[in-house]
Amino acid sequence: MGKVENLPLQLSIGYALLFQIRKPTSENPKGIRADGRYSTKALAEKLGVSIHTIHYWREKGVLEAHQEYKRGPWWYLVTPEVLQTWRTKIHRVPVQFD
Q: Which of 17, 62, 75, 79 has the most CB atoms less than 10 A away?
């Protein structure tokens, strides 16, 4: 049998339903990994902007992001220095610190 990755989307969904394959649960439900990378949603919440803004900044090269596999989620390495830089650039909402 061929790999699931090579199937069209409709067949992949049907294959997953037929064999009761569940989507893997996230090891980081808050969107923050142990290596300091943030998901798009978590970073948007942290900076007080929309996820669309985060995507726009990534596309324009303003934010550095990493995608582990094709069509996978984007992960942003956010250091305290990066947060401070963005805090000074975004005047309407202060950056949330944990």
A: 75
